[in-house]
Amino acid sequence: MSDRYFIGVDLGGTSMRVAIAGDAGELLAHVKASTYPEAGPESVFERLSALADEARTTAGLKHGAAVAAWGVAFPGPVNHLSGVLTTPPNLPGWHNVPVRDLLTPYAKAPVVVANDAHAAALGEHNYGAGRGVSEMVYMTISTGIGGGVISRDTLLYGADGTAGEVGHIVVDWRGPNCNCGNRGCLEALASGTAIAKAAVERLQTGAKSSLQAFTQPLTAKDVIEAAHQGDPLANEVFHEAARILGAGCVSVVNLVNPRLIVLGGGVSLHAANLLLGPVRERIAQRALELPRGNVNVVLAELGDEAGLYGAIALARQVVT
Amino acid sequence: MSDRYFIGVDLGGTSMRVAIAGDAGELLAHVKASTYPEAGPESVFERLSALADEARTTAGLKHGAAVAAWGVAFPGPVNHLSGVLTTPPNLPGWHNVPVRDLLTPYAKAPVVVANDAHAAALGEHNYGAGRGVSEMVYMTISTGIGGGVISRDTLLYGADGTAGEVGHIVVDWRGPNCNCGNRGCLEALASGTAIAKAAVERLQTGAKSSLQAFTQPLTAKDVIEAAHQGDPLANEVFHEAARILGAGCVSVVNLVNPRLIVLGGGVSLHAANLLLGPVRERIAQRALELPRGNVNVVLAELGDEAGLYGAIALARQVVT
Question: Hey, which of B27, B257, B287, B320 would disulfide with A163, CB 3.0 to 4.6 Å?
Fold first, then answer.
């Protein structure tokens, strides 16, 4: 038993990472390469297979060590039951690809697949800020907002494997259009994209701000930087986004009753001091009395490796 | 094995119901009595024990049949792990009562407790509109809005047993005050209470409506009746509530990815033809593409007996 190992893969639109973990889930090796999704799934999986061999060598596995399972995070919606990747925005041409079944001959072991937000939630749950917390919600705030719900130490997949879309809960039913086709989603009002847009709109009304001196078009990173430097407009924009994010978290707390909310993604990590306070305050003031009593909000710990760690956790589901 | 039976109890603020079910969960008897929660838990549980004896007699159980477990639905938040009822609005004086442990000596069997909305969700899942659907959400729309989430055939309890509070997801983060202390909750905008309030507000602006001839204060039932009779104001008020309810359902679909949403409670049952269409339409137009593809919205089937059936399902969790 102790000679078995697991392979975790985080496949992105421009790079892929492979990690090898031992029987107890401990990381043994970690390699990275660029990827060319335009070449199609078979070509990518062949490269992935070679990269896994490289990782195996790096890990210095014992002779006879056997791979127990692969866990693979994909950058798009994957059905956990069918193993089909449907509409990945960053993998051009990969539509309705049966990724699990296509990858299995290369893996020569059971393959478990998930979308990257689910994998990141599992990563933070098993290796990061959510270790030991059975009931948690992971939210990633970057250009968009995504996430995953863990209940009883298990990922909530839902009927089609798409549960946990925290970015598309409605915080203003008459609000601005969201990319998803809905109105007033959390993502339309509190994502990095929404923060940059709100700053631009305020500047267009003639408001003064140090942001006028930044290279255009503005990004959320610019707004965060200006806010850190004390720019009032940037701070106002960010504070409003944080309050809206707090309102979304109140919905999540009331509906899911987690013990912990883990905030990841670029916006959370770069603007932690601007974000955590207002979000915690709003939950403390506005969520229902019982679920708000014991919930905490913390930053993610694994950065952009959350998905890779989560892929290992996925693989370990096969045999634990 | 086949001689064991289960007891389900739905304890309300003014009445209590007891059901006896056989080994396969089939209902054998069903009795009801008034209750006086002011007398305190011990007194109520003593009456409940007598009522259970009556139900046993009615059921005509075989000699030697043994009770396997009790399931009990309470009208307030119950922690599923500790068995403590915290702050029930309709049981005056019952605060932080360890109901499970207090009831066990009377039950002489394991006791499983839940709040009434969770029990109703389990009831509809096991005996009603959600039979055979592993991923479903139950929502009850009456004076308030409550519910329960079922995933993988299991109730989502959350960390404190309060998950599933669909009435307190935010649909308008700057919206009107909710009884819970938050703003813009679904309950504040689409419950029976909110519907009546919206009609009153429109009448106060001088709008004409057949509702002016109704006995005041208006109730949601009045608004539904006027809407059924073709009153334009009542129809507008109801349609807006239905759209907001639809927006809340979109949040639920995106976050939880259920196969089915079951709508119960007085408002749903009396206004089904006004409600189902707009809710289904909003989900079809606004929810994310994958989860909206296979989700349906239907009416609850068990009426005010959903909680009692759910109590039987709770009891059966002990041994199944």
Answer: B257
pLDDT tens-digit series, residues B115-144: 999 999 999 999 999 999 999 999 999 999
Segments of chain B assigned E as strands: 4-11, 15-21, 27-34, 66-74, 111-115, 136-141, 145-151, 154-155, 260-264, 296-299
For B175-225, write each residue's pLDDT tens digit: 999 999 999 999 999 999 999 999 999 999 999 999 999 998 999 999 999
B118 and B158 assigned to the same domain:
no
- B119 shares a domain with B135: no
> CA of A192 to nearest chain B CA: how many angstroms apart?
19
Chain B residue numbers with beta carbons less than 8 Å from the beta carbon of A150 are: none
Instruction: Provide the CATH number for the domain around residue B15.
Output: 3.30.420.40
Report the complex ipTM: 0.96
Same domain, B209 and B284: yes
Q: Do the Cβ atoms of B76 and B85 come closer than 8 Å?
A: yes
Residues A174 and A291 in one domain: yes
Q: What mean pLDDT is reported for chain B?
A: 95
- SS3 state at A190: helix
Which pair of tokens denotes residue A110? 């059971």
Q: Give the residue from B159, B185, B189 showing the smallest Cα distance to B173.
A: B185
On whether the CB atoms of residues A178 and A166 are closer than 8 A, the answer is no
Same domain? B61 vs B158: no
Q: How many domains does chain B have?
A: 2
Cα dihedral B106/B28/B77/B249 (nearest 10): 170
Residue ranges for chain A with pLDDT beneath 50: 1
B54 touches B7 (CB < 8 A):
no
Chain B residue numbers with beta carbons less than 8 Å from the beta carbon of A257 are 157-163, 165
Q: Exposure of B105 by Cβ count < 10 A (0-12 exposed, 13-18 middle, 19+ buried)? A: exposed
The token pair that represents A272 in the structure block = 């932690």
Report the predicted TM-score, pTM, of the whole model to 2 decimal places: 0.96
Statement to judge: residues B238 and B118 lie in one domain: no
pLDDT computed for residue B320 by the predictor: 59
Q: Which domain holds residue A211?
A: 133-301
Note whether A139 and A100 are same-domain residues. no
The answer to whether residue B297 neighbours chain A at the CB level (below 8 Å) is: no
Q: What is the pLDDT of residues A37-51, one digit of tens each?
A: 999 999 999 999 999
Q: Is the distance from CB of B164 to CB of B121 less than 8 angstroms?
A: yes
Interacting residues of A243 by C-beta distance below 8 A, sequence separation 6+: A278, A282, B173
Asked if B169 lies within 8 A of A169 by C-beta distance, the reply is: yes
**Domain identity same for A12 and A100:** yes
Give the 3-state secondary structure of residue B304: helix
